[in-house]
Write a structure and sequence with these properties.
about 180 residues, mainly alpha, two-stranded antiparallel sheet, two-stranded antiparallel ribbon, globular
Length: about 180
């Protein structure tokens, strides 16, 4: 029973973590939102442990990524510092700050994916380009730069602009 369960779980991770195809990577979206919600309640841990462990896994084979974690942590701290004081019953920040923070949470989510299923995502992660780790600015720019949604469309569709940096994945084969 355990072997069958493990085999199914490994297969699910393989398809869940894909970064190509036609559908959003719902796992990455959920992870980014989870990280954002954690920041609403506490700022003691700006980059979750799982993302830090993913960074460790990335730098093992890509030492040029060493600065990524420090820059991500500093950017999250700076973005939170820009936010005006919020009433205790609100967790949402002004839209521009919220979108910046969510983009940073997507980058942290990409690191989290490396921790959780490195062998299945390392060749698909947006944190690598041509076999080399991207810089922090490139990682964030990939979120900001890939948006084809203008402010009019965004407000009409209520699709946040940070969502455009989440890769899509291929539909699972039904069988």
């Amino acid at each position: 029973m355990t072997a069958v369960h493990d085999g199914i779980r490994k297969q699910a991770l393989r398809t869940k973590s894909s970064h190509s195809g036609k559908r959003p990577d719902w796992g990455l979206i959920g992870t980014a939102i989870d990280f954002r919600l954690r920041l609403a309640f506490t700022t003691d841990d700006l980059v979750p442990v799982s993302a830090r462990r993913g960074h460790t896994a990335l730098t093992r084979n890509h030492p040029e990524a060493a600065a990524l974690l420090g820059e991500l942590t500093a950017a999250i701290a700076a973005t939170l510092a820009e936010a005006p004081p919020q009433p205790a019953d609100r967790i949402e920040l002004p839209e521009s700050i919220e979108n910046d923070l969510l983009r940073l949470c997507v980058v942290a989510g990409q690191l989290d994916q490396l921790y959780r299923s490195y062998p299945h995502v390392i060749d698909k992660t947006p944190l690598l380009d041509g076999g080399r780790a991207v810089t922090f600015d490139q990682a964030v720019h990939r979120c900001r730069g890939s948006s084809s949604i203008n402010s009019t469309t965004r407000s009409a569709s209520r699709t946040p602009d940070w969502a455009s940096c989440v890769p899509v994945r291929a539909p699972r084969a039904r069988g």
